[in-house]
Task: structure prediction
Amino acid sequence: MTRLLLIGPPGAGKGTQARWIAEKLGIVAVSTGDIFRQNVQSQSPLGLAAASYINAGEFVPDSITNAMVRDRLAQQDVRHGFLLDGYPRTPGQVNFLDETLAERGLELDVVLQLTADTEELVERLLKRANRENRADDTAEIIRHRMALYFEQTTAVTDLYLERGILTKVEGAGAISDVSDRISVALDVALGLLAETPC
Ligand code: ADP
Result:
């Protein structure tokens, strides 16, 4: 049973890699961005509360995001492990996740951080904007999301670095090359985990 977090800047191919990792490990991928987008589309109360933040490229407030993740992690399908994509993004969310997992005697095993050059990321996102027509993929909002990511993420990754569970993977290049690097990094990280006496 593996509990992973995938963290990376907008445009680093997180969603694609998250689905691939989840399949490889036989666990569920939980993407807060996807859950938000589905709720915005169906105009649920959660979607209505979150839409203005998402469309402006702002973080949805922790009170809304944390409650949503708590509900998601209470579902049966995550009992055999999960891969979180896009959460936690703030130190407050890290604490909340720690508490939520601790209530069940659980903790995160591995945090994978995808790294990439900002210029390449902006280029990728602008291409995606043409393809997927996402409201938050305009040049200005992309830059804002990028700045927010770098501003907030260091605090989050530092916490996991201190715990010794952070692994960095270069996210530039072809999807399959990144998957290969992730595969190697995971083998090492999960291998080490298996050797750690409980
Ligand atoms: P990206 O990382 O490419 O910006 P995501 O699909 O992960 O895209 O998230 C899209 C949007 O959903 C974010 O810009 C934000 O508004 C909201 N969101 C997703 N995850 C979180 C989170 N953990 N905390 C706050 N807002 C979030």
User: Anything to note?
Assistant: The chain has a mean pLDDT of 91. The beta strands are 2-7, 28-31, 81-85, 110-115, 166-170.
